[in-house]
Amino acid sequence: MRIKQHLFDFRVRELIVDGYAGPKGAWRVYRVTKKKCTSLEAADVLAKALGVSPAEVTMAGLKDRQGVTVQHMAVRHGKPLERRDERVWIADAGAADRPLTAAESRGNAFEIVVRAMTREDLARLRANVPFVRAHGVVNYFDEQRFGNVRHGQGWIARDLMRGKHERALKVLLTAVSPHENPRELAFKSALESSWGDWVACRDAAGRFGRHHSLFEHLKKHPDDFAGAFYHVPSRLRLIHLFAWQSHVW
After folding, report:
1. Are 80 and 94 in contact (CB under 8 A)?
2. What number of H helices and E strands is found in the chain?
3. Which of 166, 175, 186, 187 could share a disulfide with 208, CB 3.0–4.6 Å?
4. Which of 190, 185, 220 is closest to 203 using CA atoms?
5. Which pTM does this prediction carry?
6. What is the pLDDT of residues 119-162, one digit of tens each?
7. Nearest Cα to 59, choosing from 22, 95, 29?
């Protein structure tokens, strides 16, 4: 049995609670379809198109880099937007009276193509599908979600709890995986080569539109790496916390 052999073999569609998006509201809602990039990278694309900070983009959850995924994002006082490139498609999806959070999520719908199945695989699938339909499955956090496991980055939340704040921050911002796109690789390389020179890192962050306030903080407080973490988007901090919690569990 083989899965994820081709890009379109894995599709995820986010389900939002009925009534969240409508014709009126202070928050503009966007339907974002992406491939070969993370939700945070897609949020950066949306933020740049709107001329706002990535921190102003709200979402209900993070979606896998691999495959084709559809999710929603919302920005306060955002303008109607239609945008498409080879990785990210953005379409206007209405308005809302509140930001988008996990509370608005009803879960995800998956389409998975399974290839090279044996007779035994097919028999096991037919036997197990009724149980899964009736009871669901445990939502395990595993290697497919957390690159720190696959690429030797270590557990960032564990380093924070042990007081290794600079190590945790540097790994978070500069560790490179084999799947980085060229822009992300260039950004991380710029930070790696300038680490410790917070003015140079701040200037690089400004050019790439990422983490500018974090390095502005380090320029003013060069040794306050714990404080710098407060300038990392909360959803990114949380995903690493959840990864460590799940590993311990």
Report:
1. no
2. 10, 9
3. 187
4. 190
5. 0.66
6. 999 999 999 999 988 887 766 655 555 555 555 677 889 999 99
7. 29
